[in-house]
Amino acid sequence: MSGQAARPADNAANNTAFILFISVVATIGGFLFGFDSGVINGTVDGLQQAFNSESVGTGFNVSSMLLGCAVGAFFAGRLADRYGRRALLMTAAVLFIVSAWGSGVAGTSGEFVIYRILGGLAVGAASVMAPAYIAEVSPARFRGMLTSIQQIAIISGLFAAFVSNYLLADAAAGSTSEFWMGYEAWRWMFWMELIPALLFFLMLFFIPESPRFLMVKKRTDKAQAVLTRLYGKAAADQKIAEIRDSLADDHKPRLSDLMQKGTGKVRPIVWVGIGLAAFQQLVGINVVFYYGAVLWQAVGFSESDALLINVISGAISIAACVITLMVIDKIGRKPLLKWGSIGMTVTLGIMVYAFLNADQDPTGRLILGDYGTIALVAANAYVFFFNMSWGPVMWVMLGEMFPNQIRGSGLAVSGLVQWGTNFAITWTFPMLLAGVGLAGAYGLYAICALLSVFFVIKLVNETNGKELEEMQG
To answer: Which of 145, 166, 203, 248 is the most buried if burial means most Cβ atoms within 10 Å?
Structure first.
C-alpha cells in the first residue's frame, strides 16, 4: 500500500485538535530538556562558592549529565516497550521534578552531581520517547510537522532558562546573593524548573497511551478506543488490521530483534539510525551551544558581545525550526538532511578559513580582523542549516523509521549513540582547542559534515507520507 494513497486516516474524522493537544503535551518534555541543559550556565559562580570547589560547573559536570542522558535514552526505549510510552514520560517528569528540587538544595558537589545525573536520565528518556510517542499517534500527512515541534520546544526551553537566570540574578543583584526565603538566587534558578516539570507531570494524565503499544500488549479494545478518538471509527478499524499485520506475533519486542534472523547481523535500518544519531553530534553543534561564549571570546569578541551573539544564534535557531515545521511534510525528510549537510559543510569550511587567517595576541587569543564578520556570518548560517535539517529531522526520522516490532529497541540504541557522541564531542572540544586550535577542531567537524552528505544520499530512505506500518527494517 502506498503511503501517498488516500486512506480513512486522512479524512475529516481526524480529531486534529486532540492530536495537536497530546503532541504539545509530549513536547513539554523537550522544553524541559532545553531548560535543564541551559539552567546550569547561570549557576556556576554560586555552585563554586557554595561548595568551595573549582570543579563544579566545569566540563566534567556538563559531561556527567550527558552520560545520564545516554543511559536514560538507552533504557527508555526498552522500558517503554514493557510499560508504555506514557508511563515512561511520566517517569521522566518525576525525575525532572526530583532533579530540579535536589539541584537547588544540594549541600555538596557530589550530591549536586547525583541530582544532575537524575536530570540527565529524564532528558535522555524524554528525548527519544516524546518524538516516538508523537509519531505513533499522528497521521502520516502531518506527522513530521508535529514531531518537529520537539526541536522548537528544546530551543524554547533553553531560551526560558537563560531569561529566568538573568531575571533572578538581576532581582537578587547577583546569582550568589540571597533571594526569597533566605536562599541564594542560583538555587532558585534550579527551582524555577519545578513549574514546567509539575505541569508536564499533571498534563500527562490527560493524554492516551500509544495505540501501537497497546496492540503489542494485546489490549486491542483499548487501542481501538484510542484510534477511534484520534481518527474516527472507519480509520480505526483499518489501522487495527494494519498494526496487527506489522507486528511479529510470536514474541514480545526485545533487543535481539535488531539482528537479522539467520545471519546474526545487525539490521541495516539500525545502522542508519546509529548513523543519523552520531552525525547529528559529529558536526559539532553542541560545541556552539556549550562553548559559544568561549568560542567568540577566543577570537577577540568581548564577553558582552559573545553573549549577544549567542542570543542571536538562538533566535536564528527558532526561525530555522519554524521553517522546517512548515515544509517537512511537503518536501520530505531526506532533502532537508542533504541540503542541511551541504550547507553545514560550506559554512564550517568558511569558519576554518577565517580561523586559519587570524593573528594571535600575546595571550593566545585569535584576532580575526577583517575575517571577524565572515566568521560570524558563517557561524550563524551554520546554526541555521543545522536547525532546518539535522536538529529536528533526526528526531523525526528516529521516531518513525523503525518497524513497529523494533521501534523501542531501535530508539534505545540510537539514543545511546546520540548522547554518547554528544558527550564525546563536548568532552574533547577543550582538548582540541588547546591541541589543534579552533581551525583544527572546526576542520574535523567540517569533514564530518561532508561525510554526512554521502551518508544521507546513499543510505537514508524517505519516510514522508508513509504510515508507520509500512516501515521496513
So the answer is: 145
Q: Are 3 and 127 in contact (CB under 8 A)?
A: no
pLDDT tens profile 275-324:
999 999 999 887 766 555 556 666 566 655 665 676 777 778 888 888 88
**Per-residue confidence band for 41, with pLDDT thresholds at 50, 70 and 90:** low
Amino acid at 236: A
Residue showing cell 474524522: 13
What is the homologous superfamily of the domain 256-467+469-473 according to CATH?
MFS general substrate transporter like domains (1.20.1250.20)
Q: Average pLDDT for residues 237-258, to the nearest whole number?
A: 64
Q: Cell numbers of 211, please?
A: 495505540
Tell me phi and psi for residue 173, to 5 degrees: 65, 40
Which residues make Cβ contacts (< 8 Å) with residue 202, sequence separation at least 6? none
Q: What is the pTM of this model?
A: 0.72
- Residue 455 has a pLDDT of 95
pLDDT at 10: 44
Superfamily grouping for domain 1-207: MFS general substrate transporter like domains (1.20.1250.20)
Q: In 332-406, which ranges are continuous DSSP H helix?
A: 333-356, 371-387, 390-400
- Which residue from 311, 436, 277, 432 is spatially nearest to 380, judged by alpha carbons? 311
Domain borders along the chain are 1-207, 212-247, 256-467+469-473
Residues 6+ apart with CB under 8 A from 396: 131, 135, 143, 144, 147, 148, 328, 333
Contact (CB, 8 A) for 249 and 114: no
Residue 178 phi, psi (nearest 5)? -70, 145
